TrEMBL record, chain A:
The lineage of its organism: Bacteria, Pseudomonadati, Pseudomonadota, Alphaproteobacteria, Acetobacterales. It comes from Acetobacter musti. It holds the Pfam family Fer2_2. SUPFAM superfamilies: 2Fe-2S ferredoxin-like, CO dehydrogenase ISP C-domain like. InterPro entries: 2Fe-2S-bd, 2Fe-2S-bd_dom_sf, 2Fe-2S_ferredoxin-like_sf, 2Fe-2S_ferredoxin-type, 2Fe2S_fd_BS, Beta-grasp_dom_sf, Diverse_Oxidoreductases. Residues 1-76 form the 2Fe-2S ferredoxin-type domain. This is 2Fe-2S iron-sulfur cluster binding domain-containing protein.
UniProtKB/TrEMBL annotation, chain C:
Gene3D superfamilies: Aldehyde oxidase/xanthine dehydrogenase, a/b hammerhead, Aldehyde oxidase/xanthine dehydrogenase, molybdopterin binding domain. Residues 222-300 form the Aldehyde oxidase/xanthine dehydrogenase a/b hammerhead domain. It comes from Acetobacter musti. PROSITE patterns: TAT. This is Molybdopterin-dependent oxidoreductase. It comes from the Bacteria. Pfam families: MoCoBD_1, MoCoBD_2.
Length: 152, 411, 731
């Protein structure tokens, strides 16, 4: 049995330790906000926070979590910064199909936590690992700037 | 297709079919023998070479491109009577493993490191046989070898063996500790480390002196294992070496990739702690050797664009390695301090981007995808240069031609 | 597995949802976050039979829930990012006089009522949604409003002229009294629909033409379970599949025992050409699939490679008996008398769709019926296929349309639903099948590769007298909807940008050589014929302009002189981009002008080629006249995104085959444009009262030609083969 802490709640699971966190979230716990995109950490759709850092859940064997707390898109709204970023996303209607956006948002929040006022170059460096097939990059970048403006 | 140099630590290239010899298998019902055999088979890393990518274990079929010689396919060493070694006697098996001669007087091509395996005693090899008799038989015949003249005449190998031929199991050196002697047996024998880590002589045999000064095979640099403080393992702590041999990763030294990742995956990580310490003891005793200057002067001046490399890295690489070289998800992806980031020629850096890598761990397989077909030579050269400069503080001595060459080797 | 928070599944919710899925999107108020979700079917608006359903798009019922308007809009086209839910609601709400965030949304079920005449089935694609909805949905809203007013007037005993409507209520002007629509539903249901349905004039619009927020933003930003891949139903098991990587091959051998030994695996299912492993979760299924170590009987396509596909296309250049699709009577004579002729051959690759949501389908087949939860652009065909496989009457198959995590044409195919049904009928429980990304990419149905040859007959001053076009490639429509193929074998989609064009060709001929690609199934892809054709035509026009020593914008302006809307967007794009002003060394600008999907676009792209083998896209300027804008901000969003989609594809993407197998199997090899490669895109919308045109595919079509023309301007190198980057590197 493994214990995983997700959005401030402990869960026990009997999956094998090689099971990526992504599938524990989606298929075992039913937290489907974290998306499956590629399975090889090339697209960022599965980005969650582990210890506050943005990680790709598809490539993190749950056996390597070692008790570190996980936050998903379902839990990030209770964080003021998370809420600010979600608001910024809505304010300029970033989403199109929306599938990649939970991952984009989790990456953006982690960026802003480390760097409250990122430049375009900072944003590009932090966000270029997240693919958006609809091409919403321009609005993502703008929304991050806008969210940075909300941070005091 | 996997490229591999002649005589590198690789597959048993026998044709096993149609042997008339009566099978006289070791008693596979002896659990102690089978367990010992499994351990020895792992020390000898049989599975990595005798398994095709995605195929059943030990069923062979993995291709090895030997430059100038042709393509060899690893044989099926499952107990299947028609396609595997089920019909072999134990003595035939021992002779194949230790002397490179398979039933019917077929001389094995020395991609199979029988000259190293000869350090194992016949009893040890019989234990391996006992274990192999318990694996699932697979009725699958590997493709025929495609070997150019004169290598197509197997008897040529008799001549080769005169120069480079099999050693034998040698007695312990009483002046050395038991750990050292055990470590020597592990490294020189089943581990066949020198096959990749020592430079080769003119006939492509591993230099008998086994300098362990490092060598490049098929684009991959097998690093200097000597005790040299700068070029070898002299700067590694015992803990770091132990971690690396156990998991494929050591903090501050990066992660095993390519062929070494396979060795960790199928072999070294199964070593007992005492064998691991014995191996380290022996490696510590290797005379310090400087690595050969690796810079290839024939290459043109580096023409790489670091800004482009940075941009591509942020997109394609930072998902696992962050922009700092620290592992994003897992420590296995931490590349800071890796030897490959200090190599001005970028051998392994380029090769791992082209081919990818897979490391088996207790928490499942850790994969690096391959990027070769998705990115141009210039793109990959730019990424490699950026990585070397920013994470390895090393000036690159390569350009896109090095990627082109590496690509040709891996196709 | 032990969950600290028990979330007992409501059977009632499940059954209700199974008879008519209610799509989330408007309703941010229901979900609790940070906990395991309940089995999700979508927030439910209640089970009351709606007494007032004046047409297929509107249902109004007395509301039992505080804050619920009781108004439900049924949306005929599926939402896959293009914003059509928001657009459709805008159109209905404008005439119905409700606030868009007041209403509940439902995806239309498969039903004849939603069949768009020119699609032949209920389909979302070809940028037709707004065109189809523009009149239909406004009339639907207006008709319902008239009936509600009449019902209110009846209750109050007053003339209808005393009544006004706003925000979902009817007001009695003289007294100030009001009644909510929901409370008029029963009376309105007794009335006959009006015959004469006047629509508002533009000056009275309060919604149309203004930028409005998307209705699905919040749900998507919060990660609510909206997509097919998010579906969870009671007793459902997870599965993943592998089909023979060579088209037409079949399953050879499998190691079933090895798969069944994998922890969490329940079953191994087989059909002729594919295997499916059923497990507790996807990862267990995936490991089970790996353990199967499938061998395939690859069949005859195992010899196909990309070079053969291109070779067969190029062979079509010398085909003596093409289909003559379009020809003016003087085409041959005009070409014969031309002072000079100029010709060029263009090549375009196979392309995958690769939306971010991998292909998936949740399905439960029972002896007496079936439920399917899936994102599909063709719900009727998908449903009919399940009915066929399951041996059920169509009306026993409930198909619940889900939000789609990117379509781009992929979900105009439904073979994955057919496959899912073939597996699901072997088990009693619901099955959610999720394809790996590798399966999604390599078993995609691909945009065809094409070869085009264009020849111009020119007069002594280099002006066009006659044009000849030859298109060589597959006819997608022949498989997708055979009735769409013309009697002589032409796929009209291939005329896009050639005979459907802002240009006036003095004389022209379009002929077609059909060459179906071996070893792959070809399909629609974003921009369809427009993306294909515009690269050819706008590259060629650019070549002619440069050859004549003319400015590419001026040259085009002369050719579109009879098309004022096209001239406006061309001139606006040129002006806003600074066309003609000096550029830094190594930079260049390229232009394209188009009339596709009922909309006009002028596009200018600036590139920096200081590094000769690299292209940095500096800036994109687009001017668009898409008729009456419904939601200007979403027009911008579609052009921004469509442009980036097209630019990445034009630079990077080509599906290749080796030994019959597709080689690009994940995003390490199938490169998608990333944020740090995406240029700024400025969009200028021309005010227009013309009928709306489509917009979702226009930017994608413009990308490749404008980019290739910019590269030619910056570097002097004309690239006639897509993708572009390999062409630059091979210099």
């Amino acid at each position: 049995m493994l214990t995983v802490r997700i959005n401030d709640t402990d869960y026990q699971t009997d999956v094998t330790p090689d099971t990526p966190l992504l599938w524990v979230l989606r298929d075992v716990l039913g937290l489907t906000g974290t998306k499956f995109g590629c399975g090889i950490a090339e697209c960022g759709a599965c980005t969650v926070h582990v210890d506050g850092k943005a990680v790709r859940a598809c490539s993190l064997p749950v056996g390597l979590l070692n008790g570190r707390p996980v936050t998903t898109i379902e839990g990030i709204g209770s964080d003021p910064l998370g809420q600010a970023v979600q608001m910024a996303w809505m304010e300029i209607d970033v989403v199109q199909c929306g599938y990649c956006q939970p991952g984009q948002i989790m990456s953006a929040i982690a960026l802003l936590r480390d760097n409250p006022h990122p430049t375009d170059a900072d944003i590009d460096a932090a966000m270029s690992g997240n693919i958006c097939r609809c091409g919403t990059y321009l609005r993502i970048r703008q929304a991050i700037h806008n969210a940075a403006g909300l941070i005091t | 297709m996997r490229p591999f140099p002649l005589f590198a630590a690789m597959a048993c290239m026998t044709l096993a079919a149609g042997q008339s010899a009566r099978a006289a298998a070791a008693d596979p019902t002896d659990p102690g023998l089978v367990t010992r055999g499994q351990y020895l088979a792992r020390l000898a890393d049989c599975e990595a070479c005798h398994t095709a990518p995605g195929g059943p274990s030990f069923a062979g079929g993995r291709a090895f491109a030997l430059p100038g010689m042709g393509t060899l396919y690893a044989s099926n060493i499952t107990p299947d009577a028609q396609n595997g070694i089920g019909a072999w006697s134990d003595e035939q098996f021992v002779r194949a493993v230790r002397e490179g001669v398979s039933p019917g007087w077929k001389h094995l091509y020395p991609a199979m490191p029988y000259q190293d395996y000869a350090r194992m005693t016949p009893d040890e090899v019989r234990a391996i046989r006992a274990y192999l008799a318990t694996v699932k038989p697979v009725a699958r015949r590997p493709p025929e070898n495609k070997v150019r003249f004169p290598f197509s005449i197997r008897a040529v190998m008799i001549g080769w063996n005169l120069f480079n031929g099999p050693a034998s199991s040698y007695p312990d050196d009483p002046a050395r500790s038991a750990a050292w002697n055990r470590g020597r047996w592990l490294v020189e024998g089943p581990g066949h480390c020198a096959e990749c880590h020592s430079p080769r002589n003119l006939t492509m045999g591993v230099s008998q002196s086994h300098t362990y000064a490092g060598a490049v095979t098929a684009g991959w640099m097998a690093y200097n294992l000597s005790s040299d403080l700068h070029d070898g393992l002299g700067s590694w702590s015992d803990d770091a070496l132990s971690a690396y041999l156990t998991t494929g990763h050591a903090d501050g030294h990066g992660t095993a990739a390519g062929p070494m990742a396979e060795v960790i995956s199928y072999s070294l990580r199964f070593m007992t702690p005492s064998d691991r310490m014995a191996m380290i003891t022996y490696l510590r005793s290797l005379t310090p050797q400087s690595s050969a200057p690796s810079r290839d002067a024939s290459r043109e001046q580096a023409s790489v664009t670091l800004a482009q490399g940075a941009a591509l890295f942020a997109g394609a690489c930072a998902g696992c390695h962050l922009t700092t070289g620290a592992g994003r998800q897992v420590d296995f992806a931490t590349i800071t301090g890796a030897h490959s980031l200090k190599d001005p020629d970028g051998h392994n850096l380029i090769q791992v981007m082209l081919e990818g890598s897979r490391l088996e761990t207790d928490q499942g397989a850790i994969n690096m995808p391959r990027f070769g077909a998705g990115y141009s030579d210039q793109d990959l050269a730019d990424i490699a240069a950026y990585t070397l400069v920013t994470l390895g503080k090393t000036q690159p001595a390569f350009n896109e031609n090095a990627v082109r060459d590496g690509r040709q080797r891996s196709e | 597995m032990r969950l600290p928070v028990t979330a007992p599944t409501s059977r009632r919710h499940f059954l209700t949802a199974a008879t008519g899925l209610v799509v989330a999107g408007l309703l941010p108020r229901h979900r609790a976050f940070g906990r395991p979700s309940e089995f999700y079917q979508g927030p439910l608006v209640g089970e009351t039979k709606s007494p007032f359903a004046p047409n297929a798009y509107i249902r109004i019922a007395p509301s039992r829930v505080a804050g619920d308007s009781g108004i439900t809009l049924i949306l005929p086209n599926v939402e896959m990012g293009q914003g059509i839910y928001t657009g459709a609601v805008t159109l209905i709400a404008e005439e119905l006089e409700v606030e868009p965030d007041q209403v509940n949304l439902e995806a239309a079920p498969p039903d004849d009522a939603y069949v768009a005449a020119d699609m032949g089935t209920q389909a979302t694609g070809g940028s037709t949604s707004t065109i189809f909805e523009w009149t239909t949905l406004r009339q639907a809203g207006a008709a319902a409003r008239l009936m509600l007013v009449q019902a209110a007037a009846g209750q109050w005993g007053c003339p209808v002229s005393d009544c006004t409507t706003r925000q979902g209520q009817v007001f009695h002007t003289p007294s100030g009294r009001s009644i909510a629509y929901a409370d008029l539903a029963a009376d309105a249901a007794k009335l006959s629909p009006p015959k004469d349905i006047p629509l508002k004039t533009a000056k009275d619009w309060t919604l149309i033409g203004r930028s409005r927020h998307r209705l699905d933003s919040r749900a998507k930003v919060e990660g609510q379970p909206l997509f097919g891949i998010d579906i969870r139903v009671p007793d459902m098991k997870h599965a993943t599949v592998a089909a023979c990587p060579v088209m037409g091959g079949t399953v050879g051998g499998i190691d079933r025992d090895a798969a069944l030994r994998t922890p969490g695996v329940h079953a191994v299912l087989m059909i002729d050409n594919a295997v499916c492993v059923v497990a507790d979760h996807y990862w267990a299924a995936k490991k089970g699939l790996d353990a199967l170590a499938v061998t395939w009987n690859e069949g005859t396509n195992a010899s196909v490679d990309t070079q053969r596909i291109y070779r067969e296309l190029h062979d079509g250049l010398s085909e003596p008996k093409p289909v003559v699709a379009k020809s003016t009577s003087d085409a041959t004579a005009a070409m014969a008398r031309a002072a000079t002729r100029y010709e060029a051959t263009y090549q375009q690759p196979l392309l995958a769709h690769s939306p971010m949501e991998p292909v998936n389908c949740a399905i439960h087949i029972r002896p007496d019926g079936a439920d399917v939860w899936v994102g599909t652009q063709v719900p009727m065909w998908a449903r009919d296929s399940v009915a066929d496989i399951a041996g059920l009457p169509k009306n026993r198959v409930q198909l619940h349309c889900q939000y789609i995590g990117g379509g781009f044409g992929r979900r105009l195919e439904y073979e994955y639903v057919t496959q899912a049904a073939q597996f699901a009928k072997q088990v009693p429980y619901p099955l959610k099948i999720v394809w790996s990304r590798e399966e999604d990419l390599t078993l995609d149905r691909f945009r065809p590769a094409y070869v085009d040859h264009v020849r111009a007959g020119l007069d002594a001053r280099g002006r066009i007298e006659s044009m000849e076009f030859r298109v060589i490639g597959p006819a997608v429509v022949a498989r997708w909807e055979p009735a769409g193929l013309s009697p002589d074998g032409f796929d009209e989609d291939l005329a896009a940008a050639i005979s459907i064009t802002p240009y006036t060709w003095p004389a022209s001929r379009l002929d077609y050589v059909r060459r179906e690609a071996p070893g792959v199934v070809t399909a629609w892809w974003r921009g369809v014929g427009g993306t294909r054709g515009l690269f050819v035509v706008e590259s060629f026009i650019d070549e002619l302009a440069l050859r004549a020593g003319a400015d590419p914008v001026a040259y085009r302006r002369e050719l579109i002189r009879e098309q004022p809307r096209a001239r406006v967007v061309l001139d606006l794009a040129a002006e806003k981009s600074g066309w003609g002003t000096p550029l830094p060394k190594g930079h260049g600008r390229g232009v394209a002008v188009q009339f596709l999907f009922g909309s006009y676009l002028g596009t200018v792209i600036e590139v920096d080629m200081t590094e000769p083998a690299q292209v940095r896209i500096v800036h994109v300027t687009v001017a668009v006249d898409c008729g009456q804008p419904v939601n200007p901000d979403q027009i911008r969003a579609q052009i921004e995104g469509g442009m980036i989609f097209g630019l990445g594809t034009a630079l990077f993407n080509e599906i290749t085959l080796s030994n019959g197998r597709v080689q690009e199997d994940n995003f390490n090899l199938w490169r998608i444009m990333r944020m740090n490669e995406a240029p700024p895109v400025d969009i200028h919308i021309v005010a227009s009262t013309e009928t709306p045109g489509g917009i979702g595919e226009t930017g994608t079509a413009a990308a490749a030609p404008a980019l290739a023309n910019a590269i030619a301007a910056a570097s002097g190198r004309r690239l006639r083969t897509l993708p572009l980057l390999p062409g630059l590197e091979s210099a």
